[in-house]
Design brief:
By secondary structure, the protein is mainly beta. The protein is 0% helix and 34% strand. The chain has strands at residues 4-5, 10-11, 16-17, 22-23, 28-29, 34-35, 40-41, 46-47, 52-53, 58-59, 64-65, 69-71, 76-77, 82-83, 102-104, 109-110, 115-116, 121-122, 127-128, 133-134, 142-145, 150-154, 169-171, 178-182, 185-190.
Length: 192
């Protein structure tokens, strides 16, 4: 399976792109970036040196992914999402040695126009609502909205909001997987 690269895209020598990946209009992938298999990079995407995207990652239009960002498999990044890599940037101060790593774990969805501050870990299958500003680590399965991002609930692996009963148990309406609340965290108890 070959990769598809639109003629207007720029792929620097040394960038690694997995089989089946599609790279669309006006995208720039720098040397040292590693893109997994079966990814889609939408129009006007920028991927910096050292960025790692796992398999099946979907990046929508107008997203810049800066050095220090690592995304696991099956991550969705909505249109115009913003990642950062320095906490206190100044145009006249070189802080390239202060880039912080941002980890986006497996199955995360990040909604359109969300902003992710650097040095953050976003837990597996978390759901970041459109326009949300993430300023601290996010738990697995957490639903985050607002500015700054607030935890308002839990999402299943299939992307449905979970409703817990009085015993701290929830069933995903799509997959029928069972989730439990333990110590303030959502845990997948059984999967189909």
């Amino acid at each position: 399976m070959k990769i598809h690269v639109h003629p207007s895209a720029v792929i620097d020598a040394g960038a690694q792109i997995g089989e089946g990946t599609r790279v669309w209009h006006f995208t720039h992938i720098m040397e040292g970036a590693r893109i997994g298999k079966n990814c889609v990079l939408g129009q006007n995407t920028f991927v910096a040196n050292g960025v790692v995207l796992g398999d099946n990652v979907r990046v929508q239009n107008n997203v810049s992914i800066y050095e220090g960002v690592v995304c696991d498999n099956d991550v969705f990044i909505g249109p115009s999402v913003v990642f950062t890599n320095v906490i206190n940037p100044r145009s006249f101060v070189n802080r390239k040695d202060e880039f912080q790593k941002t980890i986006v774990h497996k199955g995360v969805s990040i909604g359109a126009n969300a902003t992710i501050l650097c040095g953050i870990h976003i837990g597996a299958h978390a759901f970041i609502g459109a326009g949300t500003v993430i300023t601290k680590n996010v738990d697995n399965f957490a639903l985050m909205v607002g500015n700054p991002g607030k935890h308002i609930g839990w999402m299943s692996r299939s992307g449905y909001r979970l409703s817990f009963d009085t015993y701290g148990r929830a069933i995903c309406p799509s997959s029928r997987e069972e989730y439990v609340l333990e110590g303030g965290l959502c845990i997948l108890k059984s999967s189909i």
